[in-house]
Amino acid sequence: MSSKITIIGAGSVGATIAYTLSQRSIASEIVLIDINKDKAEGEVMDIEQGTSFREPISIVAGDYPDAADSDIVIITSGIARKPGQTRIELTQTNVNIMKSITPEIVKVAPKALYIIVSNPCDIMTYAFAKLSGLPENQILGSGTALDTARLRCRLSQHYGVSEKNIHAYVFGEHGDTSFVPWSRAFVAGATLDEFDKIVHEDQKDLQPLDREEVLEYVHTSGSTVIAKKGATFYAVAVSVCRLCSLLLAASDTIVSVSTMLHGEYGVEDVCLSTMASIGPEGVKRIVRVPLTEEETEKLHASANALKDVIAQIDL
To answer: Which residues are listed for NAD(+) binding in this entry (predicted)?
Structure first.
């Protein structure tokens, strides 16, 4: 596939995305940009020395002009939360980084599709949308794509079936107010209640699904991995690479990613994750799957939590 993907940020997440892309047939050109040029050059040197074991691919450590004609730009830049730092302080710091990046990259790659991975993802996606002036269809945040993968992983473990048989999603912010619309969760075409009964016929000792435990698993997976190994980057890299392949595919796919909402479910002027149809033209539409009244209220609560943070930062 002849495509060019630029990654801004050569930290653990950005470098792992670059490595994962280099092992797949998604991009023929990869550009890695970081304010620390030695770090970017070191990551590229390490990665490119392994590309001789696959079809030829170009991977370079560059600067913004090298991103010209990119099909996709992935932004991962930002700093981790420091001890004693409030969420607002962290958000403002990373928004300020986004302010410095946005005009530089948009100037050279105005037609690219943008995937925002930097945290807090939804607010950074919102900030990029406001700062860039690009059409909103060119912008999406990785949002709950990873949360959804974590959800399906846990459901797969519980039921002992492939994650490919599971259609369940996480909505809302990529954070503590995210939730699972259980009314939209299915396994092999059956609702979870129906599938519980089906499985119980053969596995009498299988405990009923604890939905609160599953949501807790989704919410705490990131912090658990960080506590055990210091950072999370493998799963997020794979999820972002999948988004790249979907954006370059021949037809659209419906996924849970962060996009700007304009009245869908009664939510306005904020980026968060619902179902969106994405493909070669970027974000084509929000797919308004029916939600229960309780689920709609949870979506509003998530949107309001994000808006509270946005109101306290300088865009």
So the answer is: 9-14, 34, 39, 64, 94, 100, 117-119, 142
